[in-house]
């Protein structure tokens, strides 16, 4: 087990060996000392049981006011990964306890099982439109990530929150920098400002012309006389739209990639010997959309096994490593097996901060993927799988592009 005096595992911002990194983290767990890009040290939770326990431990707070290294001036104010850490507790990612419960009650209404299920026909409709567009160049190389995996969830979350289609490309570029581990200080500042200005402009438009969308609903939300401040609406929009499309983009791409690499598993789906729901869940475990989730902060010393997480230390959850835990997921967790019955994953989180958009991401994948493979049953990668290039992020598990030929 890792100890404070052991050599930290340095994470590669360019993700050149994701599989090896997952294995090293898991072997060093259940809690490992890690060095993030920029020389920032943290603790990484890499085993399933430890994650379940620590994700519900009230001594770990989401509020960065408890982060010792930051307040000692050891973290650069333009450190790229600060983009995903709320500087003030104004949204679901930066709050705990009663305040988190309050914000969740006012924002998670969009993702109840009933409301999500009502989106099924529209998801099918958008998917059909995208497939028709892909059909026009089916014999040519196309980037499935750009033309399908991105467009579907961005269209869905965009319609929900009233984000015009013309802005989707702009948001994609901004969020690529938002999640990057190698964003320059200048780009870091510019990206934060651009995203804030985008959503402030959206809020102003919805105040002037309220619509049938969730941005308007957030601005008008009232729960027993309680409403959201403009700062809370802004923070919520930035996080919900980011998570609402990025997770699903990667889920779609990673599942297609896994099935193209494992023709035997794809055959199980085609012959009805396995379900698409099972394929999506195994993809979430085996190649999760989020590699590492940062941060929680210790409000007091926490001892777990022979590791002590000191008060003020930061803790991240390594979902990629957790998915390789044989004590929960059974033998050969490195194998992609959609008939696997052992151990449900926690790739959408666990406890009070579990991702509220998980039902929507699952539904989009379960609707769109069978439609994609039914329309293009002979789809092939246009390059060798080893040539695919990951985006430079230790947080999200995404590819720069996913070139395919739909009808070879």
Automatic annotation (TrEMBL):
Regions annotated as coiled coil: none
Superkingdom of the source species: Bacteria
Keywords: Heme, Iron, Metal-binding, Monooxygenase, Oxidoreductase
InterPro entries the UniProt entry points to: Cyt_P450 (IPR001128), Cyt_P450_B (IPR002397), Cyt_P450_CS (IPR017972), Cyt_P450_sf (IPR036396)
PROSITE patterns: CYTOCHROME_P450 (PS00086)
Family indicated by similarity: Belongs to the cytochrome P450 family.
Designated name of the protein: Cytochrome P450
Organism: Thermobifida cellulosilytica TB100
Upper taxonomic lineage: Bacteria, Bacillati, Actinomycetota, Actinomycetes, Streptosporangiales
């Amino acid at each position: 087990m890792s100890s404070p005096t052991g050599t930290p595992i340095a994470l590669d911002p360019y993700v050149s060996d994701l599989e090896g990194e997952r294995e090293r983290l898991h072997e060093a767990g259940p809690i490992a000392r890690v060095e993030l890009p920029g020389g920032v040290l943290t603790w990484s939770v890499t085993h399933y049981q430890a994650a379940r326990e620590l994700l519900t431990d009230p001594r770990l707070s989401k509020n960065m006011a408890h982060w010792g290294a930051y307040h000692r001036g050891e973290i650069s104010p333009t450190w790229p990964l600060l983009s995903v850490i709320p500087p003030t507790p104004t949204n679901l990612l930066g709050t705990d306890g009663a305040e988190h419960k309050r914000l969740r009650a006012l924002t998670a209404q969009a993702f109840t099982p009933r409301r999500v299920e009502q989106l099924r026909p529209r998801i099918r409709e958008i998917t059909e439109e995208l497939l028709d567009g892909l059909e026009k160049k089916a014999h040519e190389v196309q980037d499935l990530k750009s033309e399908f995996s991105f467009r579907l969830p961005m269209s869905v979350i965009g319609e929900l929150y009233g984000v015009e289609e013309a802005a989707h490309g702009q948001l994609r570029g901004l969020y690529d920098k938002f999640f990057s581990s190698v964003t320059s200080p200048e780009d870091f500042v510019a990206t934060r400002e651009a995203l804030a200005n985008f959503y402030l402009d959206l809020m102003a438009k919805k105040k002037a012309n309220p619509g049938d969308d969730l941005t308007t609903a957030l601005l008008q939300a009232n729960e027993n006389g309680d409403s959201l401040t403009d700062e809370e609406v802004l923070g919520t929009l930035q996080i919900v739209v980011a998570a609402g499309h990025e997770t699903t983009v990667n889920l779609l791409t990673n599942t297609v990639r896994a099935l193209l690499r494992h023709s035997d598993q794809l055959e199980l789906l085609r012959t009805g010997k396995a379900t698409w729901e099972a394929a999506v869940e195994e993809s979430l475990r085996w190649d999760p959309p989020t590699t590492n989730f940062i941060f929680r902060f210790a409000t007091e010393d926490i001892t777990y096994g022979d590791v002590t997480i000191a008060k003020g230390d930061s803790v991240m959850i390594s979902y990629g490593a957790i998915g390789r835990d044989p004590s929960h997921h059974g033998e050969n967790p490195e194998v992609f097996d959609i008939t696997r019955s052992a151990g449900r994953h926690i790739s959408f989180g666990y406890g009070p901060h579990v991702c509220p958009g998980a039902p929507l991401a699952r539904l989009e994948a379960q609707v769109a993927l069978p439609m994609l493979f039914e329309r293009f049953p002979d789809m092939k990668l246009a390059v060798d799988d080893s040539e695919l290039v990951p985006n430079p992020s230790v947080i999200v598990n995404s590819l720069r592009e996913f070139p395919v030929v739909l009808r070879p």
